[in-house]
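Practice problem: predict the structure.
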Amino acid sequence: MRIAVDHTTHYVFSGPVSRGLQRLRLMPKTTSGQRVIEWKMTFEGAQLQVEYDDANCNHVSLISFDAGTSEVTIRCEGLVDTNDEAGIIGRHSGFMPMWQFLEQTDLTRTGPRTRGLLSGLPAEANVLTSLHNLSALIRERVEYAAGYTDSATTAEGVLVAGRGVCQDHAHVFIGAARSIGIPARYVSGYLMMDDRIEQDAGHAWAEAHVEGLGWVGFDISNGISPDARYVRVATGRDYKDAAPITGIRYGARDEAMHVKLAVEQQHIEQ
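Answer:
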């Protein structure tokens, strides 16, 4: 399947920005199940400074704001060919040792709510089946609903709220998997939806490392393993490691952010 992505993020600041830097993880890489055909990033009100691959093998672009700008626009356009690999990514790559994906972070740290969740997990000798059961249990316990959490909400906080979005489902899954000795990580990317092209934001899911298979994906929010409709962009221990855009700025007190995203299948002429 060939997937076309057109993703624009537009910032409007309350006043001129004297200085600003943003770290972008918006460029997918060719990996198991996907091949990047083309990808272009353009900027208004900012300039590209440097590009590099981080410890998780994510492609990172560092941009600086033009002095005195009051608006910044970041646009990504690209084509990615994908295959359905049943969510299997395979062997570990990158510079992060596997034990890092067993260590909890501030966002995934477990507590009584996670232990209570795991107590409802059926006993199962097969690790892959247990992970699918865990995904289903989280989807049952945490209703998909926006407006109840934010990027700083912890896995325990999500379980207290009983509601959240894809990022929250992923953090609960990662924290629970790590607590029972299974390495797990966060994935940010895109999902081509069957009922719409225009979307409000990108997507997030989780991957767990299974002996004999390597990394395997779990989209808890949709109750499936990623298929050919998914484009992986960045991975990390949690959202902070794989966030599409992070940064700092000086000189403007407030900002408004507007996102325009279109993800659709492009038919290939034979």
